[in-house]
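Look over both lines:
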Amino acid sequence: MVMCSGGIKTYLSLIKFSHTVFALPFAIIGYFVAVDKTGALDWKVLALVVLAMIFARSAAMAFNRYLDRDIDKLNPRTKNREIPAGKIAPAKALWVTVMNSVLFIIVTYFINDLVFYLSPVALFVILFYSYTKRFTSFAHFVLGAGLGLAPIGAYLCVVQRFDATPVLLSFLVLSWVSGFDIIYALQDEEFDRKYGLKSIPAMLGMAKSIGLSIGLHVISAGIIVYIGVLNAYGLLYWVGAAIFIFFLIYQHVIVGKGDLSKINLAFFTANGISSMVYMIFYLAELLLR
């Protein structure tokens, strides 16, 4: 990830580097699903996949912070973020966006022609998300779709065609991320209504939003089970799947009674752990069977 001036910690905070844990494990899964299919393990390509993920997400997050700087200044929850707090100038955040976008495209050039040609499309989707709260309540699904590009994108880095398992993984990420982003957005329900911003909680209210999030996570659980059945995976996969589904349930238990004070626990801890554990057991299944 490219920095300009200022402390490294400040820029890592700007792009929420720790949140890479949500999509990166699925990119790595997508890569190794392709390796399992072809036997073509190439550590250089894997390194490029990881770099592409980091650059793309850094660009998207910096752009989100740049675009939302005036909104963040008004919101008590976000007024201490780097740009409204004056720790990073808006122009520098935009610079981070541009440089990471360029590096993302350069990295894809060294992978293969298909992902290089598709890289502007992927970049458009993940950057476009930052605009969506201004005109649609379904912004959560755009975020899910953007992160859902990770497993199919990584798969295409090895196998230059679409297949069932990576596509299912992408839909898994879409439903999972959309579901937990709706939970996260509950914190800003009243703020969004007041300032005319669009979100599922602002449109539906807390109870219906939580219900929709549960429905999306039921779909996520169903996809996880279907992936295991489709590929006739063994015990290791099912242990990882069970743990992932447990954390889906756990985050809803945390916020099920409308206790917003525990949303960060549900959002960061539960989802971060579940994605990492699912990846570990999925890779163990692929490598040891």
Observations:
- Residues 1-5 have pLDDT under 50 and may be disordered.
- The two ends are 36 Å apart (CA to CA).
- The domain at 9-288 is CATH 1.10.357.140 (Tetracycline Repressor; domain 2).
